[in-house]
From TrEMBL:
Keywords: Membrane, Transmembrane, Transmembrane helix. The chain crosses the membrane at residues 24-43, 55-76. This is Uncharacterized protein. The keyword Transmembrane applies. It comes from the Eukaryota.
Length: 421
């Protein structure tokens, strides 16, 4: 009996030993698998991180207007660009001597501050948190910043150089940029050079407007704050339109909004009203008689101009050009604002007025272009660190979606911000 018990105890001991060993083996295997997986993850993450950190691309910006140069600044600040080429068909003098003023709204100012733009070092003036400067002053400032970045990034600014098929052909194939930013303005044709469709979606902003320009060579070309006036009505009784009875009617929409902007030398005016079918609006939309509009702008200018500038008289009025009638304000935006050139592995994005443009000048036009650039940094980062074509296509579709959102938001709130408030 004792012998059997000790035999059983021996067998039990062997079984326990085997189980112990089995458990130890399973534990070792699990541990080493875990260590291997952890090691793999650490190495992969480090290699990906290293690859992303090292990833740098070459970028070409077509057009050195305010939007193209800001896009160039975003590119050099992204840390993902090795080589940047900026083109403009205009020579330096022509590029920097454009007379119009630009008005950067608070959101654009914040965006540009984030890019290192120092407004204290730029000729211009502040009013209502907007910064007003001449377009040429802004462009010159950005060109000087790009010049300073030359130590860190290979920056080439080629003024007097048009982007054409010949230009593209001359780039050696192994030197093609990975990203092309087309910012060649509302009249540029670089998209067609790249084979990008020029189809636009044209959408109503549900408002009517008219613009006027006055050139007064004896006045100063200095940045000047804009003037806004609201709820205006005009006396058109001489033309048989009784405005008085209409604007007392509660159901009619509020009257016209006026903006006077630009330098004292190049004065611009914008007149806008929400779409409505009042007698006055109908009359101004249907009657193409430049003297009526001229008269309205003339009276409005003299009523709302700054005290220190001269009134418009019959002689200066002669230098005023204006719309012949009220027209429907429409925003056109490119159906295709980003594209992939497959054979050459190039991602193209279209920005500024080349991507979307109003048929009405609000005096704040540049801000629409700046909105589009808010997704540029991420786009460059994603393109530079893309592992494959799918990553690039995803980056492009995100860029295109953002471009559409910019247009949509403008349609809903853009005129309110730039004209009605
Ligand atoms: C009369 C007027 C008054 C305005 N007033 C105001 C205002 O008061 N406030 C405001 O904010 N905005 C104003 N604007 C609007 C403002 O000027 C534009 O919003 C702004 O210039 C658009 O910038 P952009 O860079 O998209 O295009 P652009 O400024 O038009 O720049 C495009 C550049 O691309 C270049 N280019 C074109 N084709 C090629 C090519 N094939 N190769 C190389 N280069 C090329 C052009 O030479 C140009 O320099 C005004 C506009 C006008 C016309």
């Amino acid at each position: 009996m004792d012998g059997l018990q000790s035999q059983n105890a021996g067998v039990g001991g062997i079984a326990e030993d085997a189980e112990e060993k089995y458990r130890a083996l399973a534990y070792d295997t699990a541990l080493s698998t875990l260590v291997a997986v952890a090691l793999y993850v650490v190495i992969k993450v480090s290699l990906d991180g290293f690859r992303q950190w090292r990833a740098k691309i070459s970028v070409l910006v077509v057009g050195s207007g305010p939007v193209g140069l800001t896009a160039a600044l975003v590119a050099v600040r992204s840390g993902k660009v090795l080589k940047l080429t900026v083109l403009d068909e205009r020579y330096r003098t022509a590029l920097l001597s454009r007379p119009q003023q630009i008005a950067l709204d608070p959101r654009s100012v914040k965006f540009l501050l984030g890019l290192g733009v120092d407004f204290d070092n730029m000729e211009g003036c502040w009013h209502n948190d907007h910064f007003f400067t001449r377009i040429g002053v802004f462009q010159e400032y950005l060109l000087s910043i790009l010049e300073q970045k030359k130590q860190r990034v290979d920056v080439k600014v080629q003024l007097g150089t048009k982007f054409t098929e010949d230009y593209l052909r001359q780039i050696p194939h192994n030197n093609w940029p990975r990203v092309i930013v087309v910012a060649d303005g509302s009249c540029g044709d670089s998209c067609s050079v790249l084979g990008i469709s020029s189809d636009y979606t044209v959408e109503s902003c549900h408002a009517y407007g008219a613009n006027a320009t006055i050139e007064r060579l004896d006045q100063r070309q200095v940045p000047t704050p804009e003037i806004r006036a609201h709820s205006l009505y005009f006396d058109l009784s001489a033309y048989g339109v009784e405005a008085f009875r209409e604007h007392r009617n509660q159901t009619t929409k509020p009257g016209f909004h006026l903006k006077i902007y630009g330098t004292f030398r190049n004065r611009y005016m914008a007149l806008v009203c929400p779409a409505s079918d009042t007698k006055m609006v109908r009359f101004l939309r249907q009657t193409a008689h430049s003297s009526i509009m001229k008269n309205i702008f003339h009276q409005s200018f003299n009523a709302y101009k700054t005290d220190i500038e001269p009134r418009l008289n019959d002689v200066t009025l002669h230098h005023m050009q204006c719309s012949r009638r009220l027209f429907e304000i429409q925003l056109s935006h490119r159906r295709i604002s980003a594209a992939y050139i497959e054979g050459d592995n190039v991602a193209v994005t279209v920005e500024g007025e080349a991507a979307r443009v109003l048929n009405f000048d609000t005096g704040c036009g540049v801000n629409l272009g700046m909105r589009g650039l808010e997704s540029m940094g991420t786009f460059i980062y994603r393109t530079a660190t893309a592992v494959d074509q799918t990553d690039i296509l995803e980056a492009l579709s995100a860029k295109m979606l953002h471009s559409r959102q910019v247009a949509e938001t403008f349609k809903q709130t853009g005129l309110a911000e730039s004209m009605y408030e």
